[in-house]
């Protein structure tokens, strides 16, 4: 496994249960919590028999509770930000290192890059980018009105460089705030996992409308068999690979195939789509935790690419 720098990614990209959050953050500050290694792979990690038995034995949450969680999804995220303010997630300084498109996706050097962060939270991704003084304009939206207010109150927020707005990506048309086909790069970083699987396609259809032909969507989220998935207690499972936390927020754990199918169904083509496997060790506690993320890039075909694909399809039909 290739060794990586310890600052590459932060464990609190994962949302911890409210009762655990303060204790875990204190423990991490008192001891050295480091990344042993990181590897990008086409295949996922293999579960032990005990881990497989745990997943197979889980009972689903009742339909009544599931309906209630869906109705209260926005309220639960708003309460999350009320409790944690801007202090829960660390700023994501790693994004330009992992996604070079945030700097390089330009036709010419002086071009202003137009970015949409779908699910911006309190701005942990966009403000490091703006602070680097990159030549970008950022559209930033979130499900939680409270999170959007935190973004607007940030000293780095400027209407000349950023437009933040509240949006339910499953039903609110992004084109009310973002011109159609105007965005060079869209980021979906630890956001799609919070959406019910039945509505994920609606999110992707929505973002695709504002993405330029030739533009790219950057994705990073929880991968299938991540430690967080195996840590859920009985009574937390909502469906296949879908769980609820104690605070009512939800999390889905993605397989490569499921994600690729979702994006391809809305016409976005895969560029890369791989598992990121890493191990995090807490030396004080003597714990070594296996983490699994899915990191992917999908592009919207340009008009010429679409035409070539159409012509190739006609040729195949003719030959048949």
UniProtKB/TrEMBL annotation:
<feature type="domain" description="Methyltransferase type 12">
    <location>
        <begin position="116"/>
        <end position="216"/>
    </location>
</feature>
<dbReference type="InterPro" id="IPR013217">
    <property type="entry name" value="Methyltransf_12"/>
</dbReference>
<dbReference type="InterPro" id="IPR029063">
    <property type="entry name" value="SAM-dependent_MTases_sf"/>
</dbReference>
<comment type="function">
    <text>S-adenosyl-L-methionine-dependent methyltransferase that mediates N(3)-methylcytidine modification of residue 32 of the tRNA anticodon loop of tRNA(Ser), including tRNA(Ser)(UGA) and tRNA(Ser)(GCU). Interaction with SARS1/SerRS is required for N(3)-methylcytidine methylation.</text>
</comment>
<keyword id="KW-0819">tRNA processing</keyword>
<dbReference type="GO" id="GO:0052735">
    <property type="term" value="F:tRNA (cytidine-3-)-methyltransferase activity"/>
</dbReference>
<dbReference type="GO" id="GO:0005737">
    <property type="term" value="C:cytoplasm"/>
</dbReference>
<keyword id="KW-0963">Cytoplasm</keyword>
<dbReference type="GO" id="GO:0030488">
    <property type="term" value="P:tRNA methylation"/>
</dbReference>
<dbReference type="GO" id="GO:0005634">
    <property type="term" value="C:nucleus"/>
</dbReference>
<comment type="similarity">
    <text>Belongs to the methyltransferase superfamily. METL family.</text>
</comment>
<keyword id="KW-0489">Methyltransferase</keyword>
<keyword id="KW-0808">Transferase</keyword>
<feature type="region of interest" description="Disordered">
    <location>
        <begin position="1"/>
        <end position="36"/>
    </location>
</feature>
<protein>
    <recommendedName>
        <fullName>tRNA N(3)-cytidine methyltransferase</fullName>
        <ecNumber>2.1.1.-</ecNumber>
    </recommendedName>
</protein>
<dbReference type="Pfam" id="PF08242">
    <property type="entry name" value="Methyltransf_12"/>
</dbReference>
<comment type="subunit">
    <text>Monomer. Interacts with SARS1/SerRS; interaction is mediated via tRNA(Ser) and is required for N(3)-methylcytidine methylation.</text>
</comment>
<keyword id="KW-0949">S-adenosyl-L-methionine</keyword>
<feature type="compositionally biased region" description="Basic and acidic residues">
    <location>
        <begin position="7"/>
        <end position="30"/>
    </location>
</feature>
<dbReference type="InterPro" id="IPR026113">
    <property type="entry name" value="METTL2/6/8-like"/>
</dbReference>
<keyword id="KW-0539">Nucleus</keyword>
